[in-house]
């Protein structure tokens, strides 16, 4: 009985010592940004009552040094500015999506484990989903980018599809005729 208790105590002590043994340090691979230039890096286009400008465009993917393993897939970043150029219509921005078009005019598919990029308008603090005539808004663009589009001479254009609801914008004046103290 005593030997059985001694064996259990020795086993427990051995397990405690093994658990307290420091692990050998593992080498952490350094990850660097691989930046692809977008030419031109700024574009301004007009469609209907909307003028859109996409500036400071670049594509960045994070790659491990030495192994060239992709640590974080490519993303398109930039600044998106929208302006309502109408003189009498308000726009309520509903959202949008980005697609990448190849040299044959066909959309470039995203990889299976990635979702197609969407644009959420008015999602930041203090931002509005409404643009009155002449009003503009800006937001940061951070969108998934397909690996196939990184190949030379494969990407023809970046397409931004906006959904908005236009409505007539009118200003009216209401005059209330009043008097003070029975005058």
Describe the structure in brief.
The protein is mostly beta strands and 183 residues long. It has one helix and nine strands.
Describe the structure.
With 183 residues, the chain is mainly beta. It has one domain (31-168): Immunoglobulin-like (Sandwich), CATH 2.60.40. It is built from 1 helix and 9 strands. The protein has one helix at 2-20, and strands spanning 31-37, 43-47, 50-64, 70-84, 89-102, 118-119, 130-131, 136-144, 155-168. The strands form 2 sheets. Strands 1, 2, 3, 4 and 8 form a 5-stranded antiparallel β-sheet that branches. A hairpin with a 2-residue loop joins strand 2 (43-47) and strand 3 (50-64). 11% of the residues are buried.
Largest sheet: 5 strands, antiparallel
- The total beta strand count reads 9
| SSE sequence, one letter per element | HEEEEEEEEE
The total number of structural domains is: 1
Based on the model shown, name its key terms.
Immunoglobulin-like; four-stranded antiparallel β-sheet; single chain; 1 helix; five-stranded antiparallel β-sheet; 9 strands; 183 residues; mainly beta
């Amino acid at each position: 009985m005593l030997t059985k208790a001694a064996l259990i105590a020795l086993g427990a002590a051995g397990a405690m010592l093994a658990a307290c043994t420091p692990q050998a340090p593992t080498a952490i691979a350094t990850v660097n940004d691989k930046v692809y230039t977008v030419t031109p890096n700024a574009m301004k286009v007009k469609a209907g009552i909307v003028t859109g400008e996409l500036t400071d465009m670049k594509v960045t993917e994070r790659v491990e040094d030495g192994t060239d393993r992709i640590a974080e897939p490519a993303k398109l970043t930039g600044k998106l500015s929208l302006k309502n150029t109408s003189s009498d219509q308000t726009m309520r921005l509903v959202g949008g999506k980005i697609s990448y078009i190849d040299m044959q005019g066909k959309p470039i598919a995203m990889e299976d484990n990635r979702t197609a990029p969407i644009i959420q308008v008015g999602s930041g603090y203090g931002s509005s989903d409404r643009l009155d005539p002449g009003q503009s808004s800006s937001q940061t663009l951070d969108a998934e980018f397909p690996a196939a589009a990184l190949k030379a001479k494969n990407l023809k254009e970046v397409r931004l599809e906006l959904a908005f609801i236009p409505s007539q914008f009118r200003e009216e004046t209401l005059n209330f005729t009043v008097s003070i103290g029975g005058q």
